[in-house]
Write a structure and sequence with these properties.
Blueprint (H helix, E strand, L loop, with lengths): L1 H26 L36 H21 L6 E6 L2 E6 L3 H14 L4 E5 L4 E4 L2 E3 L6 H6 L3 E16 L6 E16 L6 E8 L3 H14 L4 H7 L9 E6 L2 E6 L3 H15 L2 E6 L4 E5 L2 H7 L5 H6 L10 E9 L2 E7 L9 H14 L1
Antiparallel strand pairs: 1-2, 2-7, 3-4, 4-6, 5-6, 6-7, 7-8, 9-10, 10-14, 11-12, 12-13, 13-14
Helix pairs in contact: 5-6, 7-10
Length: about 375
């Protein structure tokens, strides 16, 4: 019996010990962390220096007012950062008659590079460039879009239209403002004709010149402005065409023909430059102060007009080597309230040849 009592006492003492120890384990730690083992300083061996402590890594407590203020400052900083990015350079498009050009807010050097990049991005290659004159030209790009076959072909005598080719010429001019560049973008086109004998297998294909398309020029100029970053709606608005009025006449004079333009010299000079580009003539030099364009007739121009009543054959006399050596001087001359445009030979005389008459006619069609 005594053994049982002693055991009960021992068990009671153990239970009391456990209860007391539990109170110290679960109730002894302070909520603030003071007096606990975790809050004591790091024990450093005597041979090492005590590390320095600071509030740099302490996470601050942010009140609602401070959070609101911080959010506002962050938004303001974002606006500043956006303002640091350069805005997309703009452009205005001018139009006089069927002539249209852009005045772009960039230097000629920048527009030169952007023009090359733009045309390459839409599938063209740069086939010719003259940095001195600010002229670059693309290659011909074929685009077979429509075809007349069967019944419709019989109605037009066996003639079918099977394709188109296009190329573009860009000419840049400096303005008084070094950050504004005058840009002329001109379209040139070819049309493929196929002559097929209805009773045979003989097929003949050739490309002939088709008129420049001002609407296509406007569309391509619009695409170039979008390529530079302009909004599509804005680009469409600035390139919207304006009504045209008759502004030129082809007149006979005592020793030849001239084109009389009812406009001042400055605008006529610009119009003549665009007309030259559209006709596919080669500019070897120009002198604005004297109103002179030095022109060379391209082989392509000869090919496109060789069937005009044997004009080219009469002109060249069957010698193809003369194609690359035939040149003209075009004079743009102010006369009171009009400007005269005329073609001269290398001796300075008004050219009255068959080819000069043809060029005058084509020039008039572009300037009227």
């Amino acid at each position: 019996m005594s053994v049982i009592l002693r055991s009960s006492k021992i068990v009671s003492l153990l239970m009391i010990f456990v209860l007391v120890s539990g109170c110290s384990w679960f109730g002894g730690k302070k909520s603030s962390g003071q007096g606990s083992r975790d809050s004591q300083s790091l024990e450093v061996p005597p041979e090492l220096a005590q590390p320095e402590t600071s509030d740099a890594m302490v996470i601050p407590v942010v009140t609602p007012e401070q959070a609101k203020r911080g959010s506002s400052q962050t938004n303001q900083q974002a606006v500043v950062n956006r303002a640091l990015l350069p805005a997309t350079p703009g452009a205005t498009v001018k139009q006089e008659g069927s002539i249209r050009w852009a005045e772009v807010e960039s230097s000629p050097e920048v527009i030169w590079q952007e023009s090359q990049g733009f045309f390459r991005s839409i599938g063209f290659e740069i086939s010719y460039e003259d940095a001195k004159l600010g002229i670059l030209e693309t290659n011909w790009l074929s685009n077979r879009t429509y075809r007349n076959v069967g019944f419709w072909r019989s109605l037009i005598g066996g003639k079918t239209v099977t394709g188109l080719k296009d190329r573009y010429r860009v000419r840049l001019e400096r303005t008084e403002d070094p950050n504004i560049t005058r840009m002329f973008l001109v379209h040139q086109g070819l049309l493929e004709d196929v002559y097929e004998e209805l009773a045979g297998d003989n097929i003949e294909r050739f490309w002939r010149w088709r008129p420049s398309d001002p609407e296509l020029e406007a569309e391509t100029l619009q695409r170039f402005l979008v390529f530079r970053g302009m909004d599509e709606q804005q680009a469409e608005q600035v390139t919207k065409p304006k009504p045209q009025v008759e502004r030129a006449s082809l007149q006979d004079v005592s020793n030849g023909q001239i084109v009389v333009v009812n406009d001042n010299f400055a605008r006529t000079w610009r119009h003549v430059g665009v007309a030259i580009d559209r006709l596919g003539l080669i500019v070897t030099d120009r002198n604005r102060s004297e109103g002179l364009y030095y022109l060379k007739v391209s082989d392509e121009f000869v090919e496109q007009h060789k069937e005009d009543s044997g004009l080219m054959k009469k002109w060249f006399g069957g010698d193809d080597d003369k194609k690359s050596t035939t040149t003209f001087v075009m004079k743009v001359d102010a006369h009171e309230d009009a400007t005269w445009v005329s073609l001269h030979d290398q001796k300075g005389q008004l050219d009255n040849s068959a080819i000069a008459k043809k060029l005058n006619e084509l020039l008039y069609q572009q300037l009227r």
